[in-house]
């Protein structure tokens, strides 16, 4: 079995010392030089270990001040479930209300955007075919907690009243309800969640550090005929939100 890299071993050691309350939440850690001397490793190993724990939300770095134990904070719960599709109201707003926050979102839509190869594959169309792309920032008490980029085939909604997800008489009612307005029944969605580190743009938009841990969800809605009608990339910061899947049971 390969030997564990030194920085991962040190990260485990720092986690242990935090768990044993050697350093209190909000407390400042000793200098990297001091920890390096205590652990018998170089300062670069300490830096990598601390960066990992910062990305996981256990530590936080403060420019010009040092590294601190992250204070516990309540994470917003986001429930993923087909049963939460509503003719009126927003599941996101309901989730935020449950933790005493005001949920809202901002969006920007671009029509007739050529589909990149991955999006085309997910939508079952040709690369370069036109799509409607909508970028969302979901807010809790005015602070961003989720990003989403949605793609819909333009040949599906072009020329209809639902071509703009956040515009017109059916703005903001969700994919399922909008598609129903043009005679398309959405039967199910497929979601593929995976953890990864935030890129620079995501970190800037979410107000988190670059390389912080996020959950990336690839979601695709399908019609009852099996056609993909929308696909989206959803990004949720792990330190701010927990994701829960609700699975309806048929009887």
UniProtKB/TrEMBL annotation:
Q: Which organism is it from?
A: Streptomyces sirii
Assigned keywords, A-Z: DNA-binding, Transcription, Transcription regulation
Report which superkingdom the organism of origin falls in.
Bacteria
Every HTH gntR-type domain range: 4-72
**PANTHER family the record matches:** GNTR-FAMILY TRANSCRIPTIONAL REGULATOR (PTHR44846:SF17), MANNOSYL-D-GLYCERATE TRANSPORT/METABOLISM SYSTEM REPRESSOR MNGR-RELATED (PTHR44846)
Q: Does the keyword DNA-binding apply?
A: yes
Q: What is this protein called?
A: GntR family transcriptional regulator
Q: Which Pfam families does this entry report, sorted A to Z?
A: GntR, UTRA
SMART domains linked: HTH_GNTR, UTRA
